[in-house]
Design a protein that fits this description.
heterodimer, A: 6-stranded mixed beta sheet, 18 strands, B: 4-stranded parallel beta sheet, 11 helices, 45% helix, globular
């Protein structure tokens, strides 16, 4: 690849390892469930291990919550809602959230290290994105607590009660913040279930809840696998279910809620088009494509996983993209030079590799830069699948890994037709230097978040969520609050 | 002209894609007055008719949601004018459906007023529902509502013109296209409304009207992959369970209006528009 890879250092310019110390990460041998302000073991004593995907070694064991534990957590949340949280002046409520924001910021380094150890994401991302954004989410929503009457048009907004929240493994602490912060700001209490492969930062957040004297039961955390999530969706006494995860599970949760008066928001899968026109700034577009699909190993629901490039520049763009991909460093998540860390779990690695095989069977041309991967741990090279068609599974289905499909288009109309030809509708990207083309395209894209001449940007004040099978409802910003208030629509 | 003249009876048909076809199924509902007299054979729409209506509504969507807000407001206002000018017809149909004359007149008048209310919303709801987001980076970031798409509305069992208008107006003023499943016990008014829509510059396919049985059409409306949302106000518990279970297969949006919203004009007109909008957040760099 050397003719395409002026930035690939070919060994001569290899960077020395720059590992972040894991000494600051205090991980206990075992974590219980966090119910009513205390860590308790599961009633049946169930436990499971959480692994470091970069080494596949065990980091800690955590309790596996069953139905009885989930019931207990919901009861604790209900009691806290009835006796404390719903009666507290909103300004006081907000101050707890400000405390949480500060507490996360104070221990940001420790959280970043644990996030990278437990989930495999590069320390550069957990340090610069996940943890600061999580803190910012609490800070943003803290300020809403005493201003909610401005968030709905007319009437007095009221909390819903107990919110059950189920989050995925790709942004563990950030997703916990996305869920907990607006729920608490609006006056609800919560029972949160982290993903089974990444429970640690949520449990460390539970420690912060103790540190800041959050009233017991306002935040409860039940760890476990899919059965724990199902129990949480089915338990009586919840008023709201917020879920982030796969479209398939989202649909089954929606069925589980049929006929019950439980409000819900769903953040599900995606297969976003990243559309590059011939008048785009090509180097910026290449950076945007790389950030769009290789950020967090492609474990991103809004990843720009379908590249649509105008035919006239396709060859040139692909050449530069391949050169850039050859310079990506795949390896130790704790190394500050690492661009692409470890795949989150063996299951997910298998799933990604299966999709790459499916792509080959369907006739795709596979390309990767051939980086040397670490000998142990779960890793996958950033991969292109070229010569694919709209009907191919690798174009239609979410892979959730560092795999980008490449298609071309000739006209504007063909571009938005292809971009919208999907059951999903979470995000999209467009690259062009022409302002009117930006807005023509962003207007036509059927997706909840559209990035123009940028990609994968997030902010507590910016509503996020999907059209179609990418979900129902919004999280973040003004519009996200409405999902936790009873004045808003069902 | 004193000799007896035989009245010319109207054929009550469906309204699909701007045309008035009979149901493809050839089936009918024999509609009787409250005193049990035969009034008319009304088309009993089939699942195939619903599918045809979805095709028409989908085809009309891109043009209607791209129509500017001022134009949509003008057209809503035109519907109000058409209903007002056909007051006598609506009152007659409502009385055949069992209303007293006074109640029918009142129902028509406030329906017109509610259409006018929504005509005025066309170029305002976006300002109220939108936001510029103060993100902590050098980007211009804003969130605006967009129509959810093709909507099926279940007309309230309570009947009346107002019930129809309360689901029709907020749906189409927001740029969606619509299929109304009229209540089987009140089919005459819905056909009269379709005729008024036809005369109001509403583009073909934007609003479609099916008379038929709810129990037959609802399962199809919630499981049809190309219907983005179901708007209702008075589903029974069983209907609601069915709608949610089957709608889950394609994540159909299923907002419910409060029953107060289908009975009388209130101050929650915006909510009915908002529940059929998707929020889109757009980011663009604001520094070079």
């Amino acid at each position: 690849m050397s003719e395409h890879s002026p930035l690939a250092f070919e060994g001569a310019w290899a960077l020395s390892p720059a590992p972040e110390s894991s000494e600051s990460a205090h991980i206990a041998d075992h974590y219980g469930l966090f119910i009513n302000g205390e860590f308790v073991d599961a009633e049946d004593g169930g436990r499971f291990d959480t692994l470091n995907p970069a080494t596949e070694s065990t980091l800690a064991s955590v309790s596996h919550a069953g139905q009885a534990d989930v019931h207990k957590a919901v009861q604790a949340a209900r009691n806290a809602y009835d006796s404390v949280w719903s009666k507290m002046p909103s300004r006081e409520r907000g101050k707890y959230l400000f405390r949480l924001a500060r507490a996360i910021a104070e221990r940001a380094r420790e959280f970043a290290v644990i996030e990278s150890m437990d989930g495999g994401k590069p320390i550069r991302e957990s340090r610069d994105i996940d943890i600061p954004l999580a803190s910012a989410h609490f800070f943003y929503h803290a300020g809403w607590a005493d201003k909610l009457s401005y968030a709905v048009s007319g009437g007095t907004p009221r909390a819903l009660g107990v919110a059950a929240q189920i989050i995925p493994w790709n942004f563990p602490l950030l997703m916990a913040a996305w869920k907990i912060a607006p729920a608490l700001a609006c006056g609800n209490t919560v029972v949160l279930k982290p993903a089974e492969t990444t429970p640690l930062t949520a449990l460390k957040l539970a420690e912060l809840c103790q540190d800041i004297d959050l009233p017991p039961g306002v935040v409860n955390i039940v760890t476990g696998a899919g059965d724990t999530g199902a129990a949480l969706a089915e338990v009586q006494g919840i008023d709201k279910l917020a879920f982030t995860g796969s479209t398939q599970v989202g649909k089954s949760l929606m069925r589980a809620l049929a006929g019950r008066s439980v409000r819900y928001t769903l953040e599900l899968g995606g297969k976003a088009a990243n559309v590059v026109f011939d008048d785009a700034a090509i180097d910026q577009a290449v950076e945007g494509i790389v950030n769009g699909i290789f950020f967090n190993q492609g474990h991103v629901c809004c990843a720009g996983s379908r590249l649509l490039v105008q035919e006239s520049i396709a060859e040139q763009l692909l050449e530069r993209l391949q050169a850039r991909m050859a310079s990506l460093i795949v390896g130790d998540p704790l190394d500050k030079n690492t661009d692409v860390g470890a795949i989150n779990s063996r299951n997910q690695l298998t799933r990604i590799e299966d999709y790459i095989d499916i792509g080959k069977t369907e006739g795709a041309t596979l390309w990767d830069a051939g980086q040397t991967l670490p000998e142990t741990g779960l890793f996958c090279r950033p991969t292109l699948l070229c010569d694919v068609a709209q009907s191919h599974r690798v174009v239609r289905e979410e892979i959730f890994g560092p795999v980008l499909t490449v298609q071309t288009f000739r006209t504007f109309d063909e571009a938005h037709a292809k971009a919208n030809n999907t059951r999903f509708g979470l995000s999209g990207g467009v690259w062009t230097d022409k302002g009117s083309k930006v807005f023509d395209m962003t207007r036509r894209m059927r997706a909840g978040v559209v990035w123009a001449n940028t990609f994968n940007k997030f902010d507590p004040s910016a509503p996020f969520g999907g059209f179609h099978e990418s979900g129902i409802g919004r999280e973040g910003g003004l519009h996200g609050l409405r999902a936790y208030l009873s004045e808003a629509r069902a | 002209m004193s000799e007896q003249r035989l009245a010319v009876a109207k054929t009550y048909k469906l309204f699909i894609g701007g045309k008035f076809p009979r149901t493809e199924s050839g089936r009918y509902i024999a509609f009787e007055s409250s005193t049990g007299e035969f009034v008319a054979n009304v088309s009993r729409a089939s699942r195939k008719d619903l599918r045809n209506a979805v095709v028409a509504a989908r085809a009309a969507l891109s043009g209607w949601c791209a129509a500017n807000a001022y134009l949509r407001g003008q057209i809503l206002y035109r519907i109000a004018e058409m209903v007002e000018s056909r007051q006598a017809q609506f009152v007659d149909e409502l009385m055949r459906e069992g209303m007293t004359r006074d109640a029918a007149q009142y129902d028509v008048q406030r329906s017109v007023d509610w259409l006018v209310h929504y005509a005025g919303w066309s170029d305002k709801y976006m300002q109220i529902l939108s936001a510029v987001n103060p993100v902590a980076s050098q980007h211009f970031c804003f969130t605006v509502p967009e129509p959810v798409g093709v909507v099926t509305a279940i007309a309230p069992r309570s009947g009346g013109l107002f019930g129809l208008v309360s689901v029709l107006a907020p749906t189409i003023v927001g740029g969606n296209t619509l299929i109304v499943i009229a209540d089987a016990a009140h089919p005459l008014t819905s056909v009269a409304l379709a005729e008024a829509l036809h005369a109001s510059d509403v583009p073909a396919g934007v609003a479609n009207m099916l008379t038929g049985r709810r129990d037959e059409l609802l399962p199809q409306a919630v499981s049809h992959d190309d219907i983005d949302a179901l708007l209702s106000a008075d589903l029974t518990d069983d209907e609601w369970q069915l709608a949610q279970e089957q709608g889950a297969d394609h994540l159909q949006r299923q907002p419910q209006l409060p029953t107060s919203a289908i009975r009388a004009p209130g101050d929650d007109g915006l909510e009915a528009i908002a529940c059929l909008q998707e929020m889109k957040t757009t980011w663009h760099p604001a520094a070079q």
